[in-house]
Amino acid sequence: MSRRMKKYTKLTAPEKVDRSFEAAEDLREEALRADTIVEGISVRNLTKIYPKQKKAAVESLDIGVAPAEIVVLLGPNGAGKTTTMKMLTGDEIPTAGLIKLGRPEDFKLAQSGRLDFGSLYRRQVCGYCPQVDALFPELTVEEHLKLASTLKGLRLNSSASFHQQHMDSIVAGLGVGQHFKTRSAKLSGGNRRKLSLALSMLGCPRVMFLDEVTTGMDPAARRSVWAVLRGEGSRPAILMSTHYMDEASALSTRVGIMINGEMRVIGNVNELTNRFSRAISIEASLAEGFSASFLADSLSRALGITGVVVVEDFNSSVTLRVPLCEDWTPTQQIAELFRIMEGGLKTTCGVVYYNTFPMSLEQIFIDLVREQRA
Q: Most buried of the four, 211, 220, 297, 328, by CB within 10 Å?
């Protein structure tokens, strides 16, 4: 067995870390998920400590991703997302932890020494789209695809072959077919990212790692990537990182927020919204002669709270931020706001129309990062 693969399959759990926060239920559930999933990505107590650094770059990380799930990692720069990806893909050796990738037989082969890390990619167990494009400047898009297919042992000898059809569907979905004869050095940044993603998807890997895959793409290109990932018929387990909150909301089975090398929270978007929303936003259009401040004061009195603020007031369109009442969920407060508005306050305050919604994932993320850095 190679030294590197041995480290991945024989590492023991790290010594108990003295955490400054109590492990929440969502983190315990994720650790249990990592222990119990049969196939996909199982990460337990993953830790990376660099020499001469007092703080771990990644500390006691637990993640479990089953087939057809997409877990998205969010975090500010330096949170540990890329270090995590590098450990999972063999670019970095963990200080401690246990990683299982693919199916049970893949892990057994690794433990027995018959499968090294590179083989995980040649055998289509794993696919990886790194943050920095690993492309040959002088090779065309077509040549990249043929080279990667050859290295993976894929049969592309006829248009009827499964892997040829799969490659064709990826190329069409990502829109890189029109650049087939273009050298990668001449591609735009967004198209280089698309090519890197296409290369990682060849051979229908059971596990995929995508590090900032849509960086440099325009909104339309990003949505084409989302469509390809959602429609991937091989149903891989996907762990990806991103800085785009709309991407996390659109794609994720669960979202994990990392801060200072630790997973702080993890759950689906609705769970995170209900757990961490501290306010409700109201967008409204007011009739002539009515003011946003009057609406804010009226809502404060009706709810019996303080702190209702006008976030935006332009012409007749206003946005208000309404703090959550104590012990209420966002859903409960939205229902109460609707009852109050339709009970007469809408007419009293000259509201032509209105819409209510909980804090966005981006607002929750900003609040959590601000709290942890305070």
A: 211
In the chain, residues under CATH classification 3.30.70 are 279-358
Give the CA distances from residue 36 to residues 61, 64, 68, 103, 293, in Å, rounded to whole numbers and listed in that order: 16, 8, 16, 13, 53
Closest CA to 241 of 74, 47, 66, 368: 74
Looking at the chain, list the stretches that DSSP marks H as alpha helix, in order from N- to C-terminal side: 3-10, 25-36, 81-88, 104-112, 117-122, 141-151, 162-174, 189-201, 219-230, 245-251, 269-276, 292-303, 330-340, 346-348, 361-373
User: For the chain, first and last CA: distance in Å?
Assistant: 46
pTM: 0.83
pLDDT in tens, 77-93: 889 999 999 999 888 99
Residue 112 makes CB contacts below 8 A (sequence gap 6+) with: 1
Neighbours of 78 (CB within 10 A): 13
Residues composing the chain:
374
- Which has the higher per-residue pLDDT, 110 or 135? 135
CATH among 3.40.50.300, 2.60.40.2890, 3.30.830.10, 3.40.1410.10 for 19-274? 3.40.50.300
User: From the CB of residue 55, how many other CB atoms can be counted at a distance below 10 Å?
Assistant: 10
3-state SS track over 206-250: CEEEEECCCCCCCHHHHHHHHHHHHCCCCCCEEEEECCCHHHHHH
CATH of domain 279-358: 3.30.70
Lowest mean pLDDT among 43-57, 108-122, 167-181, 346-360: 108-122
Q: What is the mean pLDDT of the chain?
A: 87
Token readout for 120 is: 């995980």
